Amino acid sequence: MVTMREREKEFKKQIIADAAYSLLSKKPYESVTVDDIAKAAGCGKGTLYQYFENKDHILAYLVSVDVKHLCEEIEEKCLKNPDIQEAIYNYMLLHYNYYQANHQIFSSWLRRSLDAGIQPEWEQDVLDMREEKLQMMTKVLARGIKNQSLIEVDPYQLARLLENIFRDITYSLLDKEQEEEDLKKVMELVKMVISNGIFLNQSLRDAKQ
Q1: Which pTM was predicted?
Q2: What is the CATH classification number for the domain harbouring 61?
Q3: Is the confidence at residue 12, as pLDDT, over 50?
Q4: Distance between CA atoms of 95 and 194, rounded to whole angstroms?
């Protein structure tokens, strides 16, 4: 049973995390200080350090929570969706929205990871959440392969490939000024390419049966 003290502690931690997100999602990681985050959260640095060891710890927490929320949406809109094609399209759109909303934070995370600035245990938390996300999509793809909607490949490797494709496409779009109508056209093109690339056409399905 969660005690009142535990609830209060989690509430304060979330206030700090929300303040950090509002700053780090808009500004480069290097330009935001712990003092900035504490001020935005309405607390002192001493209070902040009761919940997070440093700014990297805050960043890791934000990324982990964001991926967790993405997993929840994938479970609802992909894993529970009986339509394989729609489930994959939903997966693509969820990833696009995720990277669009968290572009600045995700870029900061990549830089800090490459610089070995993130402690291994914090990085592992994020890796565990990303692996859970991949496993969820692997189940969707395995279902599509089993009912002969998709080509026969390793579903886990296909899940990894799709995630990389969606991430790279999203980043290429975010790097440029795009009109909303142009974005829709690009997303429709991606749908078409994916469909023609991994979905079996009717003649192939008939040949396999």
Answers
A1: 0.80
A2: 1.10.357.10
A3: yes
A4: 15
Residue with tokens 């610089």: 115
Same domain, 94 and 190: yes
CATH number of the domain bearing residue 44: 1.10.10
Residue 169 in tokens:
């496409």
Enclosing domain of residue 68: 55-208
102: number of Cβ within 10 Å: 20
| Residue 181 neighbours by CB distance under 10 Å | 8
Q: How far is CA 135 from CA 69, 111, 129, in A?
A: 15, 25, 10
For the stretch 106-124, pLDDT in tens is 888 888 888 877 888 988 9
- State whether 109 and 199 are in the same domain: yes
- Listed in sequence order, the residues at least 6 apart from 82 whose beta carbon sits closer than 8 Å to its beta carbon are none
Whose tokens are 């900061």? That residue is: 108
Q: Are residues 40 and 70 in the same domain?
A: no
Place of tokens 């291994």: 120
149 by Cβ neighbours in 10 Å (0-12 / 13-18 / 19+) ranks as: middle
Q: Which tokens is 30 given?
A: 């290097």
Nearest to 148 by CA among 89, 203, 200, 82: 200
Q: What do you get for the CA distance between the two ends of the chain, in Å?
A: 54
